[in-house]
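COMPLEX REQUEST
Ligand: zinc ion
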Amino acid sequence: MRQKRSKSYRKQMLVYNHAFKFRAPYQIIVDHEIVEVADHSGIDLVKYLKNTVQDEVKPMITQCCMQKLYESKNQSAISLAKNFERRRCGHKDQAIDPYDCIDSIIDIKGQNKHRYVVCTQSIDLRRKLRHIPGVPLLYMNRSVMIMEPLSNSSDAKQKQFEQSKLSGGLNDIKAGKLVKGGNSTGEAEKEKAGAKRKRGPKEPNPLSMKKKKPTAGDNKQEEGPKKKRRRKHGNKNSEDKQDDGAEDNTDNGAQPSENLEENQSEEKGTRDELEVGNDSD
Ligand SMILES: [Zn+2]
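STATUS: Structure written out below.
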């Protein structure tokens, strides 16, 4: 049974980490009652908390809960609570009901803004806090610390989170961050992503453009040799030579190469003769 519970708590904390961005050491708000229970039964409260959330913890107690303990004059409970960090609640001048106090620091516009885990013996407070998504709730049942199962509001939020991930893929996770982190960073990320995407096509394009420009020039030069081949025949036929001159003004520049080609053509005489033969056919 213990192992089973431990496993389910671990899974639950993973949900809080994943969907609600909880991180160890977990800040755990303990109420005055749980301190008294721990003191009375002699259990190591911090150890229990650690074992339940299965990571490092940072227990905290509000000023109002502390005030309640002072009123009880339970010295050992007070000294135990003094080990915990005091959470300022703004009720120091006039302490309010400890449970209202805890509720006031958890429920910030319907969100558990500071990502507190709450360890309280008050059933009413736990019932209240179940309506706020992402509030891990702990309490003592005799000598066992219990973590409440994921509340309906937490479960709905978690499913919504998973759904957004499934439907949107990676982009939606960034979008999820946008909501919390602010639009400016998200836009910057989008711009970066856009720039990266642009870089892809841009990089090859200039290269291909560079190649294209010379090839465009080369084509003209290539046109020359093609014509030269004609001219080779043209050398034999004066009419062709005149046509070439009318088509292309670069004839003069191409002439030296023509001479070279003539030399080459002498070597490749047989090939040219074959070509001429084909042309004549
Ligand atoms: Zn308070």
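REMARKS: The radius of gyration is 41 Å. The beta strands are 26-30, 57-62, 85-87, 107-108, 111-112, 116-119, 137-141, 144-147.
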